[in-house]
Amino acid sequence: MNLIQHLDYLFNPRSVAVIGASNIPGKWGCDILNLLLTRGERKVYPINRNRSEVLGVKAYGSIGEVPGSVDFAVITVSGEALPAAMEDCVRKGVKTALIITGGFSEVGGGGAEAEREVVEIARRGGIRFIGPNCAGHLNTSAELFTAPYLPSMREGPVSFVSQSGNLGLVVLAMGYEAGLGFSKYISSGNEADLHFEDYLEYLGQDEKTGVIIGYVEGFRESRRFLELAGEITRSKPVVIMKVGCTDCGATACRSHTAALSGSDDICDAAFRQAGVIRVDEVGDLVDTALVLLGQPLPRGRRVAVLTVGGGLGVVAADALVRHGLEVPPLSPATMERLNALLSGRWSRGNPVDTSGDISYPCLAPLLEDENVDAVLIAGPVWAPSGFSAFISTPPWERDNLADLEKMVRAVEEESVSNLDATMELMKRYQKPVVLSVWVDSRVKDGELYRKLWDNCLTPYPTPDKAAKALARLVEYSEYLGVATGS
Amino acid sequence: MNLIQHLDYLFNPRSVAVIGASNIPGKWGCDILNLLLTRGERKVYPINRNRSEVLGVKAYGSIGEVPGSVDFAVITVSGEALPAAMEDCVRKGVKTALIITGGFSEVGGGGAEAEREVVEIARRGGIRFIGPNCAGHLNTSAELFTAPYLPSMREGPVSFVSQSGNLGLVVLAMGYEAGLGFSKYISSGNEADLHFEDYLEYLGQDEKTGVIIGYVEGFRESRRFLELAGEITRSKPVVIMKVGCTDCGATACRSHTAALSGSDDICDAAFRQAGVIRVDEVGDLVDTALVLLGQPLPRGRRVAVLTVGGGLGVVAADALVRHGLEVPPLSPATMERLNALLSGRWSRGNPVDTSGDISYPCLAPLLEDENVDAVLIAGPVWAPSGFSAFISTPPWERDNLADLEKMVRAVEEESVSNLDATMELMKRYQKPVVLSVWVDSRVKDGELYRKLWDNCLTPYPTPDKAAKALARLVEYSEYLGVATGS
């Protein structure tokens, strides 16, 4: 059985045992069992020495007593009981496991020894496992969840390996809000057996995974990582937040997952060579995945900025240049077309500041311009319609209300159809159109926002965030040779 | 009448005229009039040549026909009609004005000339004005709003001058969400008459203003700005996002507000000398104001990181060091106290990773440690309680439900009382406690979040954001000599 076949038992097991099953909410053995029992369709066996039933389901005193075969065991027992539990798994012929239990190499000394013992037992029995000291994993398409306390989540092409379970939750939560759908997630814990490189290999060939993101404190097999990444990034992007670049972070890493973190500059250069997109803030993992999923690959660094208000254009241009992109002059033909569309007060250059005129009609001329590889639309605030705000306040002129509501609806319908047309244009010209606008939570239920969210076109809150994400996309496009650096 | 007295008529006028008053929602002359009529208590006079009533209120054909005196005029008429409108204001003895109308120096050529003409008329008549090409202003304590399309807003100590009205709206919206209350806001437009430095001088002496934030594309009087700032920052912080630092941004600035932007490095050094906190991302304006309002000034750079999960601590430590702060070893006494509080699995160092143990009891020992100037608490995700999520799913064991709900309530009550105790500790030791946790919008109605929000202790979404904000606070504290740099 090769690695890929083996890991399939982790993500698509036909039967799961929970060793350490419990009835007490808040305990891993209860919360994970609950997830397994309420989602997906597979055999689930609670293992508990003292109870014949857990969460209303027949429980077994040991995994050996389970009648059928067990593909995958979730182990939540205490550290002392772990070696015996793993021995039981070996005897039972379990293929894969996930060990929640902590207190091993991350605490040093005897913990590291105990961890080695468990690895040895598993190796002998041909069991591959996640953890120990991890916080679960998931595969949305199989409805398999062993990570409790998950935020809202939907299925999609992002797979995520995190060397921190807590940070993993933050990224999953931020990702959902930004519109990311996830395929697989692994909180890899101490990586005593399976480690980042193994998951990367699996996700690289996984058809449901379109973008791989990772939080990494250290690599066990740097060379293998770079070789794998160099291959995978040819067809799917890999975005990694690698920390431990300061002395202090490195020390914290060691006590967290016992990972060895390398020199930061070397890491940067190696990542670049392998086409890995490195980010340095947690939010960038999400921002970058979003732009990779929602946008076509640009063919160069030249960005047209389109805005209704000057300052937003200034911030966008500033950030684009700071991140290595260009804000070039527009072609004379484009200038002419914009002159015909806009009032005399527009900025007459790039950034295109319409001075309040509607900006949507400018999009096609900009995308058609040969000097333009991408468009960044910098909008201000998207709150409940100005019209509705108006409706709610004035005590007079109530006669106009019906008309106003009609206007609001008409504006919203027009926006949705403009969005459809924009997506059509992006496809036709194969150029990204990245949007920044601060979105009030009260409009997130609307059709327009939903459509943006569903298509990974969710707006960035500020122009500088949009510019940074676009710069990562250009970086990847240049690596692939789609964009030619200038 | 000195500048301060003059500007008082802008922020506390007893009577306002809207020249260009309109009945058509979406037009500035309608939306601003609506704001003035529905908020605050003062005389409001719509001026409209063709209507005897606007929004149900008696209108006047010209400002000259208004029976009483007029302190402040909002002018929304077209560019061609502007000089005559300003002449009318002079004849009427108006003290101050705000000109929404655009199409002046920001479009170059004849626009600049027309602008100079309006300035001349105003100067002759002793009128000081905001704009042209601006998007309004506000003073919450006077319930005066001339900026339509505002997001939610509450009164508070932040005052904000923005050389972009659209960017201003983004910052106001982000600020509200983060818990900032605003006192005054000015969209300063082209600054043909009153400019950034004038507003700064006013806000510097304004008792309701505790923190000044600004978005600046260029200064008209750099020297005066630095002198003023140097004085003001001794007693209240000034945070500025100064753009135009790249060639491209500088070009965009010129076409936006006709401001001249200076060399970036010089700007940086001058800001530092004057104690001005410079930020380079839009969101940092809000993040920095928040930490300045919610936290005491730290006496040094040494930060203890407290977390329930390793990766969050690693990210925090990494970001702290990247931003120039330190994550020092804890004193032996603190180590002993933490050993007594935490299970054997804690990290035994700084960052303090409790490995899942409740972290609140560690706060007092950390704040008492003489090696620690501030604490950064790095939490994961704050979503609807894990217990509630559990309640919603399992089909069995319903007997426990009442108990579970009691547990949820007990946890929430305990959290609120822990927060009270934490604020007490912060006050006693005069050390900042900055929190990072990703907050799901569904918990934002709860008592705990509300209390954090009300006290400017709103959590940062990720540890790196919290670290960056804390670094700004230390920077300011060092400038004031409260913190001693190391």
Task: Write up what this structure looks like.
Two copies of one chain form a homodimer. Chain A is of the alpha/beta class and 486 residues long. In chain A, 58% of the residues are buried. The first copy, chain A, folds into three domains: 1-133, 3-Layer(aba) Sandwich (Rossmann fold); 150-294, 3-Layer(aba) Sandwich (Rossmann fold), CATH 3.40.50.261; 296-480, Succinyl-CoA synthetase domains (Rossmann fold, 3-Layer(aba) Sandwich). In chain A, strands 9-8-11-10-12-13-14 form a seven-stranded mixed beta sheet, with helices on both faces. Chain A contains 17 helices and 18 strands. At the A-B interface, helix 2, helix 5, helix 8, helix 11 and helix 14 of A face helix 2, helix 5, helix 8, helix 11 and helix 14 of B.
Q: How is the topology of this model organized?
A:
Two copies of one chain form a homodimer.
Chain A: H1 3-11, E1 15-19, H2 28-38, E2 43-47, E3 53-54, E4 57-58, E5 72-75, H3 82-92, E6 96-99, H4 110-124, E7 128-130, E8 137-139, E9 144-145, E10 155-162, H5 165-178, E11 182-187, H6 196-205, E12 211-216, H7 222-232, E13 238-242, H8 247-257, H9 264-273, E14 277-279, H10 282-294, E15 303-307, H11 310-322, H12 332-341, E16 352-353, H13 363-368, E17 374-382, H14 386-392, H15 401-429, E18 433-439, H16 447-454, H17 463-480
Parallel strand pairs in A: 1-2, 1-5, 5-6, 6-7, 10-11, 10-12, 12-13, 13-14, 15-16, 15-17, 17-18
Antiparallel strand pairs in A: 3-4, 8-9, 8-11
Helix pairs in contact in A: 3-4, 5-10, 6-7, 10-17, 11-17, 15-16
